[in-house]
Amino acid sequence: MTNTTARFETSRRLAWLLCCVVPFVFGGFALALGQDANWDLKNYHWYNPYALLTGRWQFDLSPASYYNPAIDVPMYLAAQALSAKTLTFGLGVVHGLNFILLFVLARTVLRSPDEVRRTLAAAVIAFVGLIGGGHLGIVGTTFGDNVISLFVLTSVVIVAQKPKTLFSPDSRIALAGLVMGVAVGLKLPMGIFAVGFCLAFLFIGGAVRLRFLLAFMYGVGVVGGLTLSAGYWFWMMARDFGNPLFPYFNGLFGSPMGLADSYRDVRFVPKDFFTAVLFPFLFSLDGKRVGEIVFRDFRIATAYALWIVTAIMLFARRSASTSVVEPTLSRYLALASLVTLVVWTPLFAVYRYIIPLEMLAPVLIVAAVGQWPTTVRTRAIITSVALLLVTASALPGTWTRQTTWTRQLVEVTVPPFADPTHSMVLMVGYEPASYVIPAFPPQIPFLRIQGYFNDPDDDTGFNRVVHERVAAHGGDLYLLFATWEQGKAARALSRYNLSTDFDQCVNLVTNLSEGLKLCALSRNP
To answer: pTM of whole model > 0.85?
Structure first.
């Protein structure tokens, strides 16, 4: 066996070992972080798959958010059979699978005659991609951003697998678009990556006709994937509410069920162009600019800055004579990531939506410095220092976790109902509470009379339907609300000519939150 063959075999075994071990490391890390109790879990990650599996979308009215529940169904089903610890470990392992995709991508981007060094370098790059301040905070949680990233990164890997003929118009381009489209359907904000990685073909790829062909093939794939993962959901929303994205962009779709509003959360969107240009640096210094929690990570900002320098060098026709990275692939990844960032900034500016970009950032850092007109040794030192600094300076965010473990992920104790078949529960407030619904008798419908998407004073078809159902209900009525939102509850009840004795309410015992109360309602004379 020649030395080259031996090195190749060593590299292959090392790659298999790393790809088998690292995901389980993240499973252990998830257990160390603790049991998930995040806001979105309590709002829709638990209720939505339950509603889909039991057909409650018209039986209940807006107890949670109207998001495609497909990505949450496996988690919900697994949670019925597994303990909270086992489920959390499993989620961590799934999240750790991102390492494999980043590893494959990094090996593809890197050039090296020494296979072992190439494998070790790719492993370091991939691992640095997974230990960012944004990603570590959601390991082992039900947010799903680091599950969706598996589809995003798979799409990128498919495109990158032929770096020598990157822009050949073969079926893999459409397949990559298909996988990206699935990601978009499972979580619509991932559309920013579909736009970025599609439009990048228009600027890198040879003749103009070829560029448009590649973008078209990728785009067709995206539409196909979107249809596969969310076509049924769009159809349901259009059928039931007159808006396939209900309630979002209702000013465009004009559903009478909602207001003529976009319903978008624009709290974090930069207010001016100058702030938008500097945004990667600003949110890296202050994580509260792009989310509800404190965290810090400089991966995206570092890649952003280094590629500005690299672009200037390339424009001045100064690049390395001996490249240690695949130059065309590197430029495609950089441009696609930049377009993604440009689209994300005015639309969302929510950091969790660009977790895949945080993962990709170390690859982008290496790809940028790898083209600088310096010695291979100098580029290696600069890259190593950059990766070390972004790792050492990261401050992981902390989303809500349980202080102690419970047996199941969600545990709710419901008081007995005298006549569940003829009972109805009304919901009020902004505190997420839909996670308790699966624990109630299934005969009981839940109707939200006030919340993020509806207010009793809104003149909408949704409110008219709620009023009609409450008025027509002849059995027992109950109110579900959080103690600190009693004022909102009293106001909302007055619009429905209902009242309650708040002193007679009973506490709902749950493992995820305190202060949820259930009250018997009476109709005012």
So the answer is: yes
